[in-house]
Amino acid sequence: MFLKKLKNSTSFLSISKLATGNILSQFITLIFAPVLSRFYGPEAYGVVAIYITITSILDVFTTFRYELAILIPEKDKEAISLIWLSFIITTAISFLSFLILVLFKDKVTNIFDAESLGSLIWFIPISLFVNGLSKPLVNFLIREQKFNKLSNLIIKQRIVGQITRLILISKGSLGLIIGQAFDQITSTIYILNSYKRIFNFKLNKKIIINQIINYKDFGLTSTASALFNSFANQFPILILASNYSVKEIGVYFLVERLILIPVGLISNSTSQVFISKITDKKNKHNTLKLFNKYAIYLIFIGIIYCFFILLLNPLLPFLLGKDWIDSLKVAIAIIPIVFSQIAFSTLGIAYEGKRIILQGLFAQIILCFMKNVPLLIFLSNFKFPFISAIWIYSSFSFVGYFLYFLRLKKYLKRITT
Q1: What is the pLDDT of residues 242-256, one digit of tens each?
Q2: Measured distance CA(164)–CA(241) in Å, rounded
Q3: Its pTM surpasses 0.85
């Protein structure tokens, strides 16, 4: 009865459209994985892990989260003005990051413990610029509920990115980084070409300033919340990198990335449809009901997926090659965090969707604490094998995500009743 009801719902159909694109795009990633993992090796992926960690933390500032506000205005004119506001902020932040590197490169390297990046550190401003342009455009597609277009875009992104990585194998870690950038460039060109009316918008200083003020909770509180979220997800890599070899970090990074492929398609597809539903005025008084329905679906999917990890885990070394034998133990150790990201984290977009952003910030602080502080304390005082450190991180992350989930449900119940 539950599965039949779910299958016939419009939410499920929308999720299915996005999931189809995600499944095909991630299938492309899996096809390329055995080739790329053999040519690049764990060390190259370890360097890329540190690079992505730094850019992901800084990426929060590229739009100051105004791209999420694009979903809220009733008029397209306001939504497009928010796109241009995001573009302006992205350009300014990218240039500022380049200037900081020019003036303080050695200090930045020391702060992030990023000596292994070498000259790759100069690509950070480019990555920030490309990512910052892509985010508001993707959210504009979600606003338009063009899920078929978004699904097709995801597939095109993946094809372009993976082919780029394959062509640039001889460039080492740089090839992986450029491939990631081409993912985002593809989406930017595709959406701008499809929605030329974005260019027809007459940029007006007064309108832009009004939007900064009207959605200041996104620019301030949501940005702070996203920064804590980014630290929660990314900073453990830097903690691990300061205690273990680049090769070990590379194994963890790629294994987690591959295992989280289905998690990403489930989470992204579900959260994008979920936020479009809860921001729809027709569902104003049904938010908690929608939350509960989606939560049951996600917990069900999370249990099934973790079972498949246990079942198919022995295939990883065969898939990746002989240099990746430790992938077996890493895959098992990250099961708690995998389940948490499916079941507890996905619906966190509701903090922005219902504009309970300050509460979301408090929840992110707790999550950030649980994912980083115990790991930092344990590794600062004891010498653990690498796999034990992953278990510590994964277990405390589970607790953090569960608390995050409970707080969200509590706040949604409060504003709905």
Answers
A1: 899 899 999 999 999
A2: 27
A3: no
